[in-house]
Amino acid sequence: MADTQAGADRRRVLIAEDEALIRLDLAEMLVEEGYDVVGEAGDGETAVRLAEDLRPDLVILDIKMPIMDGLAAAERIAGGRIAPVVILTAFSQRDLVERARAAGAMAYLVKPFQKSDLVPAIEIALSRYSEIAALESEVAGLTDRLETRKSVERAKGELMTKYQMTEPQAFKWIQRTAMDHRMTMREVADRILAESQEAGGAQPATS
After folding, report:
1. pLDDT by residue (tens digit) across 118-156?
2. Distance CA 171, CA 203 (A)
3. Helix and strand tally (H, E) in the chain?
4. CB within 8 A of 90, min separation 6: which ones?
5. Cis peptide before 112 (omega within 30 of 0)
6. Roughly what angle, to the nearest 10 degrees, separates helices 185-199 and 142-163?
7. What proportions of the chain, in percent to the nearest 5, are helix, strand and coil?
8. pTM: predicted TM-score of the whole model, two decimal places
9. Cβ atoms of 110 and 90 closer than 8 Å
């Protein structure tokens, strides 16, 4: 039963890493954790082409790669709304994490990493990607979209701090409340933030 369930939920992952040994280890970890490795690349340009062809559920990119680096590849893949991206970075490259986020990466892993680090990073990336897709379907204009994301991020933080919710739980609470009350997620988020300032921690009302 567990195997059948795992098979039904398997996520398709593309790996791009120029060091063959790390790529092999990563692929083994992913398979052991129930993911399908549908493609592998040793450079960013090949990674972008495979992502466009294979349409995976997730792409894992090393920052330092030949031909096209991971940041440029992430920008192409995330910008094209092909798949969420997890960036691999060496500890000495931590200064590049902000650039990776700006390029559209949803999460990152610092090398050397353990199998226990891998799944949380993937789940964070998948969760954030689905959140952005939901927000973008609600708001058409780029400026409004950015402001909506900022409000929702802050509102999620309020819910996580006050009610010990996880980040996905907080987003789902906002999304469900918006649907139940025929509001936009931006309106729900703004109300949470306003009530937090006024009431100093009262439960956010939605009616």
Report:
1. 888 898 888 888 877 777 777 666 667 778 888 888 998
2. 16
3. 9, 5
4. 63, 64, 110, 111
5. yes
6. 50
7. 60, 15, 25
8. 0.68
9. yes
